[in-house]
User: What shape does this take?
Amino acid sequence: MEIRELRYFLAIAREQSISKAAEGLYMTQPSLSRQMQNLEKELGKTLFVRGSKKIELTEAGYLLKKRAEEMLALYEKTQAELAAPEECAGEIRIGGGESFCVSFIARLATKMQRENAGVLFQFYSGDTQDVSEKLDKGLIDFGILVEPADLGRYEYLRLPEKDTWGVLMRRDSPLAQKECVTPQDLTGKPLIRSMHAVKNKELSAWFCGEEAQNVAATYNLLYNASLLVREGMGYAVGLDKIINTEGDDSLCFRPLSPALESSLAVAWKKNQIFSRPAQKFLQMLKAELSAAPRG
Assistant: This one.
């Protein structure tokens, strides 16, 4: 199985048509068909269901699509690292979830890029599970993980700032008159919960089981949840300073009481072999953290 064949396969999966994929690859349809027949023979699996109007992937095809995308991403990352000049230039790939504390990393990345114009940062957004998966597969150099997270299998550094948990609500909501929100305040209220936060044991302990009574929706990105809140679906439980609620905005944020905070950590694989830019970024990160005040 060659990289070229994986590119051909992904082109067909994307276009759902061998003829359209062949056109985009500047090759003939019979030639592309033969390539895929050879790939299926090599793998011993049928990858496509060839319909009259479009081609669909089999279960094996979907698995190969996922793995092919990962392999090509890692291949291209390795190519970029090897092709980088001797000076500090190349890509640094960072994954993380929604958090205002990521601004610490943003400031550091900006500082590094000003000093090293040949460095390109690629940021990937996802929850802790998504980021950990990409980190484990070598698709990103660093992962910004919201605790509690399984940090035991990584090297990591904790960021100096913490995230505050609270509730995003409409400003005309009765709870908006309160300075903070208790578990009892949310009893019976329609809640909009983060899919990742459902696994947060500290948050579940804060609710004392109250949140299970009326979950109206779940979300992956708080911005999407904020749209549901604006429409009056319910109260979104999330982190502060992700959605701007200042001024005359129709939404407001109220912290939880008792207060609940989450720490963040920048993690990387143990025994990781870094590219020159990633190694320098880690050195800068350690220097910044050693000089940063601790709360």
Summary: The chain has a mean pLDDT of 86.
